[in-house]
Structures are given as C-alpha cells and as structure tokens.
Amino acid sequence: MDLSLRPCLIAICTSLCFSTTTIAADMSATAINDRIKPIGNIHIEGTTPPIAAIATSSRTGQVIYDQYCASCHNNGLMGAPKKGDADDWATRMSQGDAVLAKHAIEGFNAMPAKGTCMDCSDDEIVATINYMIKPN
Ligand code: HEC
C-alpha cells in the first residue's frame, strides 16, 4: 500500500469509530435507567394501577339472578316463569337450551334483553338460566 494513504485511512477509521460510539452509547444515568428498566410497570398496593384490572372472573348465576332477575322471576311478574318452578319451565325448556339462551340474551316479549343486566356476558346469562331452572 502506498504509504501516503495511511494517515487518511486512519482518520476515516477513527471518525467512524467515534461517530458510532456517540450514537450507540448515551451513558447518562437517565439513559441507562431507561434502557435497563423492566418491561411493564410495577403496581404498588394502594396506588392507582396503570391499566384498569381486566374482569376475569365471572359472577355466579345466583348473584346475577338476585340483582337483576328476581324482581320479575320470583313471583312470575307479567307471566315470567318462576325460579325453580318445574311447571313454569317445562314447555320453555322443551324449546332447547339455544332458544332459551337466545331469548334471554336478545329479549323476548316482556322479557328485556339480558334481563337488564347489560354488562352480563352471554356465559353469565346462561349460568343464570341454569340457576333459575334448577328445581327449588
Ligand atoms: C322486567 C321483568 C324481567 C326481568 C328483570 C327478567 N325477566 Fe326473564 N322473563 C320475563 C318475562 C315476562 C318472561 C316471559 C316472556 C314470554 O314468555 O312472553 C321472561 C322469560 C325469561 C326466560 C324464558 C325465555 C323463553 O324462551 O321462554 C328466560 C330464560 C329468562 N326470562 C331469563 C331471565 C334472566 C336470566 C334474567 C336476569 C338476568 C331475567 N330473565 C330478567 C321478565 C323478566
């Protein structure tokens, strides 16, 4: 190699080397803490969680029944089939589970959609029907 090129190559290498160092390594405490922080945030008891807890557990049929359905289904209001009354439920159950569930979820005549429990999942409504039709 021509010796006159050497200083030039060294200069190029050195500048490349330093330039990448400045881009890659911000060594300030904040920058380092930011790089090594854990993924996600820590929730300390008593403080507001960063993301509202996702409701994972569903309510039981009994809890929903007592709160939303009892007012009509305890005494057969407007012809509502009474809880645990085998006679009231016999013909309705003969329609099949899918129809019963559909009527309860979408509403049926004087039966309001989801029995007014608008935040009930379909599974919760089905659990409630199972609770209602169980003989007393
Ligand atoms: C405002 C009164 C009212 C409330 C509240 C109510 N129901 Fe009803 N429900 C009725 C009436 C009335 C019927 C009968 C409708 C008909 O056969 O014409 C009925 C019928 C039903 C049926 C039978 C549907 C069919 O296909 O025969 C199911 C299942 C049912 N309700 C479930 C529920 C559940 C579950 C809840 C609570 C989450 C609830 N209901 C809340 C009035 C109510």
Characterise this structure.
This protein is mostly helical. It has two domains: 9-34, no CATH class; 61-133, Cytochrome Bc1 Complex, Chain D, domain 2. It has helices spanning 6-24, 29-36, 61-73, 86-93, 97-106, 122-133. α3 (61-73) crosses α6 and α5 (97-106) packs across α6. The mean pLDDT is 83. It binds heme C. Residues 64, 68-69, 71-73, 77-81, 92, 95, 99-100, 103-104, 108-112, 114-117, 125, 128-129 line the site of heme C.
Write the layout of secondary structure elements.
Elements: H1 6-24, H2 29-36, H3 61-73, H4 86-93, H5 97-106, H6 122-133
Helix pairs in contact: 3-6, 5-6
Bound molecules: heme C (HEC).
Heme C (HEC) is lined by residues 64, 68-69, 71-73, 77-81, 92, 95, 99-100, 103-104, 108-112, 114-117, 125, 128-129.
From the structure above, extract its key features.
binds heme C, 2 domains, Cytochrome C, mainly alpha, 136 residues, 51% helix
Return the string of H and E elements.
HHHHHH
Name the helicity range. Answer: 40-55%
Q: What ranges have pLDDT less than 50 throughout 5 or more consecutive residues?
A: none
The main β sheet shows up as: none
Overall geometry comes to elongated
Task: Please tell me the overall pLDDT.
Answer: 83
Q: What ligand molecules are bound, each kind once?
A: heme C
Number of helices: 6
Structural class: mainly alpha
> Going by CATH, what is the homologous superfamily of the largest domain?
Cytochrome c-like domain
- Class of the largest domain in CATH? Mainly Alpha
Q: How far is it from the N-terminal to the C-terminal residue, by CA?
A: 100 Å
Question: What is the count of distinct domains?
Answer: 2
For the secondary structure, the number of strands is 0
Q: The CATH topology of the largest domain is what?
A: Cytochrome Bc1 Complex, Chain D, domain 2
Q: What would CATH call the architecture of the largest domain?
A: Orthogonal Bundle
Q: State Rg.
A: 34 Å
Q: Tell me what portion of residues adopts beta-strand conformation.
A: under 5%
GO molecular function, one term: iron ion binding
Organism: Photobacterium carnosum
Signal peptide: 1-24
Keywords: Electron transport, Heme, Iron, Metal-binding, Signal, Transport
